[in-house]
């Protein structure tokens, strides 16, 4: 027999009825994807947990469902986040905060969400990151900080990101990176540092990651690459060095890149390159199958390029921007396409 506490009576029903009606009302509205406490957001519930999507909202949504696994608060011009914004959603896996105006992040923001896998902060106004932001982010795999105002990178910024595979820092104002910046990012496979103000790369920058596949360094102010810069990355497939100010590339620069599919050196200040620089590129495994670009460099077409001509001869079917790869000197060959000089050489 049920105890009196559990036995229904007319009085119980009276107190229960409003709650039942409320629950019903909630069910009906959530069937339309809207829950009253988050009326500015779209809430979709599934067996895995809730997905909450908020666009153009005046404030950070609260309270969030305890089972939120995916949260987007985007295009909302938010300038700050409450320090305990994520306190209730311990199961959060993806957090998308792009296109706001966040200037800084609370240091403890991510402490409650230890299973977070994706964090997207594209197009905000971040100038820096608090030192222990990622202390609890051992599960984070994708971190996008593209299009912010990050400068003065600190070695502590990325501490704790033991599982990170994809790091996007493009379109910031980074002038330099501290030594050891990437040291704990063992599993990093994509690194985008494009369109910053980098003039040099610190010695040993790529010593931490051991399986980098895509590296973007385009649109910086790099003049030279230190010895052994890419040495630790035998699995690199794609390398963007275009739109820099490289004047010189030493002969060991690419020696270890046997898996390379694509190299972009266009729009630099290269007039010559050492013999055999390209000889081992992508060899024997990949053979630069996705092509290479040497255009918009002031090539001086003399004997020093003989090795490059020979290599181009064998690989011209993979060459991009052939028409924009021209000699800047000597005078007699000025304006000629490198490929035509290659043909002259072979006569
Ligand atoms: C955010 O700011 C932009 C630019 O000022 C404006 O066009 C947009 O309407 C704003 N959005 C919201 C949700 O306030
Ligand atoms: C070369 O790079 C500079 C600096 O990034 C850029 O402003 C310019 O438009 C580029 N030129 C070409 C031809 O791509
Ligand atoms: C190659 O470049 C020259 C000079 O810049 C230009 O006149 C010509 O149209 C280009 N040809 C092609 C096929 O793009």
Structure characterization notes:
The chain has 347 residues and is of the alpha/beta class. 12% of the residues lie in helices and 15% in strands. It has a 12-stranded mixed beta sheet with strand order 1-2-3-4-5-6-7-8-9-10-11-12, with no helix packed on it. A two-stranded parallel ribbon has the order 13-14. α2 (306-315) packs across α3. The model is unreliable at 1-36 (pLDDT under 50). One of its GO terms (cellular component) is extracellular space. InterPro entries: Cys-rich_flank_reg_C, Leu-rich_rpt, Leu-rich_rpt_typical-subtyp, LRFN, LRR_dom_sf. GO terms for molecular function: type I transforming growth factor beta receptor binding; type II transforming growth factor beta receptor binding. It comes from Cricetulus griseus (Chinese hamster).
In brief:
This protein is of the alpha/beta class and 347 residues long. The protein has helices at 10-31, 306-315, 338-346, and strands spanning 41-46, 49-55, 68-74, 94-96, 118-120, 142-144, 166-168, 190-192, 214-216, 238-240, 262-264, 291-293, 299-300, 327-329. Strands 1-2-3-4-5-6-7-8-9-10-11-12 form a twelve-stranded mixed sheet, with no helix packed on it.
What keyword list fits this structure?
347 residues, binds 2-acetamido-2-deoxy-beta-D-glucopyranose, single chain, disordered N terminus, 15% strand, alpha/beta
- Which small-molecule ligands are present, each listed once? 2-acetamido-2-deoxy-beta-D-glucopyranose
- On the 0 to 100 scale, the average pLDDT is 88
Biggest beta sheet summary: 12 strands, mixed
Helix content: 10-25%
Radius of gyration over alpha carbons?
Answer: 28 Å
Structural class: alpha/beta
What topology, given as strand order, has the largest sheet?
A: 1-2-3-4-5-6-7-8-9-10-11-12
Order of helices and strands: HEEEEEEEEEEEEEHEH
Distance between the termini: 105 Å
- Poorly predicted tracts of residues: 1-36
How much of the polypeptide forms β-strand, as a percent range?
A: 5-15%
Summed up, the helix count is 3
Q: How many beta-strand runs?
A: 14
| Overall 3D form | elongated
